[in-house]
Specification:
By secondary structure, the protein is an alpha+beta fold. The chain has 2 domains: 114 residues, Aminotransferase class 4, branched-chain amino acid transferase, N-terminal domain (D-amino Acid Aminotransferase, Chain A, domain 1, 2-Layer Sandwich); 161 residues, Alpha-Beta Barrel (D-amino Acid Aminotransferase, Chain A, domain 2). Helix content is 29%, strand content 27%. It binds 4'-deoxy-4'-aminopyridoxal-5'-phosphate. 4'-deoxy-4'-aminopyridoxal-5'-phosphate binds next to helix 6 and strand 13.
Amino acid sequence: MALKIWLDGKLVDKKDATVSVFDHGLLYGDGVFEGIRIYSGKVFMQKEHLLRLWESAKALRLEIPISIEEMGEAIDETVKANNLTNGYIRLIVTRGTGTLGLNPFTCAKPSIIIIADNIKLYPQELYDNGMKIISSSIVRNHPLSLPPQIKSLNYLNNILAKIEAIDAGVLEAVMFNHEGFVAEATGDNIFIIKNEIIYTPPVQSGSLQGITRDAVMKIAKKEGFKVIEQNLTRFDLYTADEFFLTGTAAEVIGITEIDGRVIGNAKPGRITKLLKDKFFEFANG
Ligand code: PMP
């Protein structure tokens, strides 16, 4: 069965799901998006994702032409049309079709695209044995330039860091902010554990407010762990007892080496594994 894409109010076949070459989403990366999981037939934390989408759009002065409720219905329709009980939803709002100039206000109307498909996570082997990463030389966008809290279609900052990771033979890279503190990975948030205490950088140090991050923080607190949001340095990462990343696609994945420094006993740690399992239960419960 051909994949059905929701495009500006209609479900169309994948081959017919096309946008204009004058869309500023393509011309300038002007737009916003979300990645959402479907677990056991339910759209995971839809409310939180839609709120973040609307806040990202607001920060860019982009008015989404339908209501949050209508977007929810459109998501349900797309998931149903593609018969998915587990999968991934990509929600995109572009600035729309305009002229060749930068001015976003020449664009007639934002376009909305909803893709619901299967998802490929990291290989299982990396979840079992942990993942190696590097620290990137690419500084995360300055908050006064392009706030990392906006989930925009302009991911070049992250892509440059991702290229460094791939060149180094790994799949992820830690990005630091303009002050030298840990911001986030190219597509995931960062957590470390030291002496049984869980640390993650505050979003103000230059990260997206990850929905998985927030869920994992809540789960960790419920399990009785102390969770502290504070600035972290590269040294803190090198000397952590445990280290993991969180994200919609990645879920919870243990990091066992960064820049050649082995974390813990080179296997995903006990607390990391516990949080990974509890997150799985929460998502599928
Ligand atoms: N940071 C960045 C840059 C991201 O793109 C993502 C989403 N892939 C995350 C963090 C994690 O956020 P979430 O848990 O909401 O997917």
